[in-house]
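Bumping with the actual sequence this time:
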Amino acid sequence: MKKLIPALAVLAIASIAPAQSLFGGNIIKNGSFEAGATSVDGASVAVPDWNGTTTVGEYGATNWWEVPAGPWSDGIKFAGGGNFASNSINQTFTIDAADFATVDAGQAAFTVDGWFGGWSSNNDNAVLNVTFKNSVGGDFRTIQIGGVTATDRNNVTSMLFRSATGVLDSGTRSIVFNLVFTRTNGTYSDGSAENLRFNANAVPEPVSMVALFLGAGLLARRKRSA
């Protein structure tokens, strides 16, 4: 039994997502769903970098999805709902301690975007919930994008671009991305999602910007008086 303890400890440590820089580009892993297997018959599959299962279709397939390629396609695959009234997949991003000061100063701006759609006149849909959490796992707030309806798509099987911008809450230490598919009628959830992205960048301190403008003004006065 003693020999199992170190092995279990290593496994537990390996399951914890390592902290990463918030400002290194898109922090949603496999947001284009190109990694991993395709659903052969519309059944759910495991999706690399995501917890949970859902369907992963290929553009142009006529057996289950009938979703054409378009401006939303970054490859040959997209995520779909499946044979559920509602299902979801999620992943968590842990912010590196080196970025805490920027986040806590209210200087971490973000943009979250992606493509969301559905099939024909069916209102089945996909929504991405982005939740900012503190150091003990408490929620600050949740940003939601997606939820494209059949009316939005003019009853055409397609996807539409949706985005949101803002500033991370002071004290944010992790971000949870939860992609939810909801069936509104029928027996199969036809909501779809593709190219999910979350990018953050550090913005200048307001005080620094004021100082910059004041400095520019003083320099201009000196030039005029010279």
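The tokens above came from a reply further down the thread. Residues 17-225 form a domain with the Jelly Rolls fold (CATH 2.60.120.260).
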